[in-house]
Amino acid sequence: MEDIKKLSLEQLSEVVVGYKEKKFRAKQIYEWIWKKNVNSYDEMTNIPKLLKDRLAKRYNFNSIKIDSFKKSKDQTIKYVFKLHELSSDVDELKNNKKTEKNLFVEGVLIPSKSRVTACISTQVGCALKCKFCATGSMGFLRNLSAGEIYEQVALLNKESLSYFDRKLTNVVVMGMGEPLNNYKNTIDALDKVMSKNGLSMSPSRITLSTAGVSDKIKQLADDNTKFNLAVSLHSANDTVRNSLMPINKSNPLKRLTSALKYYNKKTGNRIIFEYLMLDGINDNINDAHELAEFCKSFPVKINLIEYNSTKNGNFKKSNRDSLGRFVNLLKSKNIIINIRKSKGSDIDAACGQLVNEAIKTNN
Ligand code: SAH
């Protein structure tokens, strides 16, 4: 059976009119799904029963569910979301017939004085295998649908209201997966987050982070996207970046630079670079010089990120002296730079620590 959440408003209108119902019913149903985020047809109180019954016969109404959560000392909350579909529905897992398993992704709610930020996932696992990131070690299982991506934001918004008495203020697409390798679904989901029929969030409060899929960065510009773009750079030297991020082999820095120039020219947006400080790997003064040189091509802001240990990582975070020298050099070149201490590391909720069994036995 098809999923009602895969229908656009126009498609839903056609279905409703096909049942000889008034067209405005489609808009009402759409609002129940996307604005009020109900979990069943039953909850759509102003829709005629006959119409709901007909829809229910033809379309599934599936939602992601909160499976579990963990709260950090710093108030950050990590959520495990259970997807409705079982492993037997996923091509890669079809051979595993012994047990039916559910799929899971993770999201994080990060409160601060002035903000509550939701960090959301776009894929179950990730294919990129960056050496420092826990998610890569899971491998890639499947893309999330636009509905599943959007619902993480909607659910975390409800959670934010109940825990912190505040709505979400920001969304970062920095959880599991490479969003630009699930381009259409991610863009459709963010469109809904920004839409008046969804969460009406301003694009300036949304940041999508990519490991650097050059073609898709150009597409973001062509599609006139308005949200912020962050690039996980981690080195401005191809040899070092190749050793950390296999994606650099097909998307080397030269290609990335030309894509980012194109993006900046078309959108006018400043580029945010994320730079993980790894002891002895990318944190000496030459690395800082190379980074400063790399940043000359477009207006940038750099977020230096403290490395969070992962189970499989052999890296160490930079010491204070290296960090200090690195920051001073960049500041002397008038580059905007922030030092980010990740939150939630005590519960493995921080950047790069999102990994789960992804498939757990269903019972
Ligand atoms: N695939 C996207 C989004 C997911 S990663 C991307 O690569 O940008 C989100 C951020 O967490 C990236 O900047 C990533 O480089 C960073 N990260 C990954 N592993 C980390 C770790 N162990 N410690 C700190 N940050 C990490």
Q: What features would you describe in this structure?
A:
- This protein is an alpha/beta fold.
- The chain folds into 2 domains: 2-60, DNA polymerase, domain 1 (Orthogonal Bundle); 65-361, Aldolase class I (TIM Barrel, Alpha-Beta Barrel).
- The protein has helices at residues 9-18, 24-34, 49-58, 146-164, 183-194, 214-222, 238-244, 247-250, 253-267, 285-294, 320-332, and strands spanning 2-3, 59-60, 65-71, 77-86, 101-111, 116-119, 123-125, 140-143, 170-173, 206-210, 228-232, 271-277, 300-306, 336-340, 359-361.
- Strand 5 (101-111) and strand 6 form a beta hairpin.
- It is elongated.
- The site of S-adenosyl-L-homocysteine (SAH) has 17 residues, from strand 10 and strand 12.
Features:
363 residues, DNA polymerase, domain 1, TIM Barrel, two-stranded parallel ribbon, 11 helices, 33% helix, 22% strand, disordered C terminus, binds S-adenosyl-L-homocysteine
Summarize the structure.
With 363 residues, the chain is of the alpha/beta class. 33% of the residues lie in helices and 22% in strands. The protein has helices spanning 9-18, 24-34, 49-58, 146-164, 183-194, 214-222, 238-244, 247-250, 253-267, 285-294, 320-332, and strands at 2-3, 59-60, 65-71, 77-86, 101-111, 116-119, 123-125, 140-143, 170-173, 206-210, 228-232, 271-277, 300-306, 336-340, 359-361.
